[in-house]
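Protocol step 4 of 6: record predicted structures for both targets in the notebook before any analysis. Target 1:
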Amino acid sequence: MNKILVYTAAFALATAALISASYATTKIDNSRVPNVDNNVEFPSSRWRIVKHTVRVRIPLDKNPLDQILIDVPSTVAVSNDIDVLNEKSQKININVSAHGRRIIIDFPEKVISNTKLLIQLNKVKQPVQGSASVYNISAKVVGSDEEIPVGVAQFPTF
């Protein structure tokens, strides 16, 4: 047990001795103007482009699906590059519009019922670190303006 403590203390001291005391220093030379020699951004603000895919089950109903509404979290930026596929992986004709942080997927054919849909949000700009991206999804059926809550999709960052 004592050996572990001694090794841990020695490792901590060696690490502290090797770490630079500052991230930014000024050059001292004959020019009387100070300038920055080095800088480091901490924490890093790296982003990556990802694809978020959501599976939505549409039950058999008297009225077919009219729209799917997706509330986009503030932690991501979603492009208009969105595909909707049926359970046979065939593309479905859609119209996409955005109003603030809400994406509206409109189905012009109005025959979507009793199926599973894959909604592919392509080219989503998501941070590498931070909290998970949580989308709230709702739907509207033909002949009604009422929003029906469908569920929540959560995508972790890594």
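Target 2:
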Amino acid sequence: MNLKKEFLNESKAKNNLENYKPSFFDKIFGSTQKKINRLTSLLEQAKNDDTKENDLKYNEYLVEQKNWKELQRISNGIENKETESYNDALQYFNPFSDVGELGTQISFNFENNHIDIDLHVNSVEVIPDYELKQTSTGKLSKKNMPKSRFNELYQDHICSSAIRIAREVFAYLPIEYARINAVSKIVNSKTGHLEEQPILSVIFPPETINSLNLETIDPSDSMQNFVHNMKFSKTKGFSIVEKVELEK
């Protein structure tokens, strides 16, 4: 494919030079040659501007061509169920560029028909531990949030983050399911130490997610639509769980 060069600036400047006609005052004050020289100089500048613009367009064309070839390679790899291409697609489109809203880190393990994702979720500090309410006099009152309410909000945050990750993956990869594991720093009751452990593990089929009304569902309640492991209480919050496995 040949990229056609354009010389719009040169054409306009050349037209101005060729059609210049000295005015009455140009002849009286002897400025005719000075204006011709200026128009000639502008013509040269116009040629340089056209060269820069054409070079810029050509470089943009090369970038677009490179991107097109890369997309073709990724698309062909995905069609052939090449796991390397799965990873390349997510790297190219980068749907998790704002992963900070969901967690601190995300890692992938690809198989031919599914993807396994560990999402290192945000700590409970992502949820404010207070509520603002308006008093009868119109002032704002700040009160500590009940522990049960706080834990429920954090549970919704974790579950909605898992749903968001799965939806992003299904938008780019034709896989049968995605297992999302929400990993958090939590006290292991067996050791008494703070460890990174799964607190939610869900297997999402794309068909089920697409059947939900995501505008109105309760994120935590919606987990009942999927094979999942989650131990949660309003008073204690999350507990450590095993990563869920599909029934064989």
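Step 5 preliminary note on target 2. Helices lie at 8-18, 24-29, 32-79, 83-93, 147-172, 206-211. The chain has two domains: 8-78, 95-239.
Proceed to step 6 after PI sign-off.
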